[in-house]
Amino acid sequence: MDRDNLRTVYGHIAAHYGWGPQSRQTIEEMAELTQAINKHWRKFGDDTTDKGNPYYKNIVEEIADVEVCLEQLKALLNCKNQVEDVKIWKVERQLERIRG
Predict the structure, then answer these.
(1) Is there a contact between 56 and 39 (Cβ–Cβ < 8 Å)?
(2) What is 4-34 written as a DSSP string?
């Protein structure tokens, strides 16, 4: 499957399962990402240079799971553009904070 087809597939999967199951699945996947990050911290601290370690690979997989779920929630709520607008605003705000 190519990346261009993913948007359609996200909507299809989301519509099949619906808001309740997919929102709960998202919560579960976010918890798994949190756990993966914590395990990496315990073993490697802030070192993210060893991309071959199993903790790194687990984080990558869990990020993908969370992003898939978030795409489905955006499809269910029909809010992709709104989310993008808020992301732009938040990034611009953070850049202003960094600039001081």
Answers:
(1) no
(2) HHHHHHHHHHHHHH-HHHHHHHHHHHHHHHH
The predicted-structure confidence for 45-72, as pLDDT tens digits, reads as follows 888 888 888 999 999 999 999 999 999 9
**Which CATH number goes with the domain that contains 26?**
1.10.287
- pTM value is 0.89
Half-sphere exposure of residue 49: CA atoms within 13 angstroms, side-chain side = 1
Q: Range of 59's domain?
A: 3-99
Q: How many domains does the chain have?
A: 1
